[in-house]
Amino acid sequence: MKKIIMAMAMMLSMGAGEAMAQKNAALENILTRTSVRSYTEQPVEPAKVELLLRAGMAAPTAMNKQPWHFVVLDTREALDRLVSANPRAGMLKQAPLAIVVCGDMTKALEGKAREYWIQDCSAATENILLAAHALGLGAVWTGTYPIEDRVKATTEALSLPEHIIPLCTIVIGYPKGDAQPKDKWKPENVSYGKFGGKK
């Protein structure tokens, strides 16, 4: 997989100059990120936590509404409270950090466009996942919304007010073991010009 990524990076940079070569670091980060579900006991440094949050807040957002709120769980007590609420989230039992990405409905658009909060918070989630990988951390996206019992349990465990809806929990830590990225490239999932159109 790494050979494929490096070959792609070289192809992209051929004749494109130094600016393109620097951007290849971003592409490599995207292409080598993978879900990590097992962590060491090493805590995540506060400076890295802030970088993760800054990355999340740098995400694109409809009309720049930024309808998100992030709940940081960085103590064993807080993490265990969420484990109790969601026993299926076994990864939280060993992780030193989790960030619950929530939608703040007081900042969301109105009417049918209100649901854009899901896209905005999803973009923030992906930014955090990529930032974690770039910082040498491992992370995994665990879904909450729209599963009602998960939303209710998370809301109660974190004392969330009515206008804050938990979208997901990102479980984060220093990776234990060597998780390898999957090659997800499938040309059959691409059409050109119209559905089913070939290049």
Word description of this protein:
With 199 residues, the protein is an alpha+beta fold. The protein folds into two domains: 1-32, no CATH class; 35-173, NADH Oxidase (3-Layer(aba) Sandwich), CATH 3.40.109. The protein has helices spanning 2-13, 17-32, 46-57, 76-85, 116-134, 148-157; strands at 68-73, 97-104, 138-143, 164-173. It has a four-stranded antiparallel β-sheet with strand order 1-2-4-3, sandwiched between helices. The protein is globular and about 55 Å long. 27% of the residues are buried. Mean pLDDT is 90; it is low at 3-7 and 9-16.
Topology:
Elements: H1 2-13, H2 17-32, H3 46-57, E1 68-73, H4 76-85, E2 97-104, H5 116-134, E3 138-143, H6 148-157, E4 164-173
Antiparallel strand pairs: 1-2, 2-4, 3-4
Helix pairs in contact: 1-2, 3-5, 4-6
Question: Briefly, what is this?
Answer:
40% of the residues lie in helices and 15% in strands. By secondary structure, the protein is an alpha+beta fold.
The profile of the biggest β sheet is: 4 strands, antiparallel
Tell me the series of helices and strands, N- to C-terminal: HHHEHEHEHE
Q: CATH homologous superfamily of the largest domain?
A: NADH Oxidase
Give the total of beta strands.
4
Shape: globular
Distance from first to last alpha carbon: 25 Å
Q: What is the CATH architecture annotation of the largest domain? A: 3-Layer(aba) Sandwich
Rg computed from alpha carbons, rounded to a whole number of angstroms = 19 Å
CATH fold topology of the largest domain: NADH Oxidase
Domain module tally:
2
Arithmetic mean pLDDT: 90
Query: Are there runs of 5+ residues with pLDDT below 50, and where?
Result: 3-7, 9-16
Percent helix range? 25-40%
Strand order of the largest sheet: 1-2-4-3
